[in-house]
Amino acid sequence: MPHPSPAHPSRRRLLAALPPLVALAATSGGSRAWAQGTFPQRPVKFIVPNAPGSSIDTIARILSTQMAQGFAQPLVVDNKAGAAGALGVEVGRTSPADGHTVIVASSSSITIAPLLQKAVPYDPLKDFDFISLIALLPNVLVVNPALPVRNVAELIAYARSKGSNSNMASAGVGSTSHLAGAALQSAGGFQSLHVPYKGGAQGVTSVVAGETDWVLTPAPAAMGQVQNGRLRLLAHSMTTESRPLGDVPSIAQTLPGFEFAGWIGLMAPKGLPPGAVDTLRRTLAQALQQPELRKQFDINGAVPTPSTPQEFRAFLARDIEVHKKAIEVAGVKAE
């Protein structure tokens, strides 16, 4: 995925939902100079509320490897999957607020889970400290290569011709891939049988195996299978002007106005010392500028998007409203 420069119109359009980002200048003196003060004093734990191999896990591991170079302490990824991400988020929320445990948050665990699970005990906007957005993630529309479709219009025609014999995979009821797929069906005027799986990796694997026909899933969950020829990539879910995956077309080129992107960000238990927040944010911002990380993000279709804590909070408030509408379209009820 070519990463457009800040002046590029695609980049401006892609980040239109965010307030102007604060420029985070690089600190000279090498990566060890990124972290300031006495923090961290022991290993920093990244709680990933998703299973290994998921899109969030993939990005978290790429980021943690690069951020670790800015710390004098190790950075450890700890997967705590369950309850559509709510389990891991709650583990993070109730951890000591000293900066040594942070949460790799996403639209699925922070935006969607509280909207669909009555038992979720946290308020996304009130119960956490915001550190920074990490990346925006296009969803990618992929099909089994044996399916006789090569673009969005052909998939719509195929699904209409098959009726109930056409099926769509997802990472589970209420997941990002479920809501994105429901939004696509609504926009395209067709229906596919929803087949929910227990996680994004399983849903993608079902399309590879031919158990299901298609999935509209966060890019990192599928791009490896696209590159090895086991999936056919039809389109991405960002705007027509955006180019997160080079020449890959947008769904909006066939269905004008369609847009359904995800995000990943770094959050923490409420009450972090300001110095810890600042060190984590600056270290993250510097990691996002490193060529090796950008190369890996490009491969996975992730658009680096550093922000201030205030910008992250404002972005999340808008994202919650967008997903409320998507959940209504999908007809999913909170349980």
Summarize the structure.
The chain has 335 residues and is of the alpha/beta class.
Measured by DSSP, the beta-strand proportion falls in 15-25%
Could you list the spans in which at least 5 consecutive residues all have pLDDT below 50?
A: 1-17, 19-36
Biggest β-sheet: count, sense, barrel? Answer: 6 strands, mixed
Distance between the termini: 38 Å
- Which range best describes the helical content: under 10%, 10-25%, 25-40%, 40-55%, 55-70% or over 70%? 25-40%
User: Radius of gyration over alpha carbons?
Assistant: 19 Å
What is the overall number of helices? 11
Based on Cα principal axes, name the global outline.
globular
**What is the N-to-C order of secondary-structure elements (H for helix, E for strand)?**
HEHEHEHEEHEHEHEHEEHHEH
User: Taking strands numbered 1, 2, ... along the chain, how are they ordered across the largest sheet?
Assistant: 2-1-3-10-4-11
Structural class: alpha/beta
What is the number of strand segments? 11
Mean pLDDT: 87
